[in-house]
Design goal:
It holds the Pfam family Mesd. The protein has 4 helices and 10 strands; from the N terminus they run ααβαββαβββββββ. By secondary structure, the protein is α+β, with helices and mostly antiparallel strands. The termini are far apart.
Amino acid sequence: MERLLDQWEEDEEPLEPDELPEHLRPSPQVDFSKIKGSNPEELLQMTKKGRTLMTFVTVAGTPSRETTEDLTKLWQTSLWNNHIQAERYVIDDNRAIFMFKDGSQAWEAKDYLIDQPECKEVSIENKIYPGKYSETVCTDLQHTNSKGVLRILLYSQYYIYFVDSLFIYN
């Protein structure tokens, strides 16, 4: 039976690369001349072009599943209006997966998502990007340094900053 199938397929023309299943498609050729500087994200974005990529999005606070459903639906619609095709799957009360058929679009979507006040973080390829509104000031960790300058610790889950007057330290 298997030989009969092989004989049947011998006479057919080979499929176009875009008609092949994703795991059988040839890898996209990366043009290194288009890469500006040494930006690893840009290189990663170019290698994910045409490949399926999943992005995890965490909603800030303790929303209900319905709230997460509504927010992510709104974000998905905004992405579609910007010609970024993403499928959305809510996996927890405050987490969702956005799946992109063209993985290079995930970084454009990330830029939009982290600008949203309700977005806590976006994770692409195990790299976490905190939302712009996810930082909080922790007043109970205020103290003065040896020069008597009041230091306030600003923190998010991934970055810690000390603020002295007008200086920010990483």
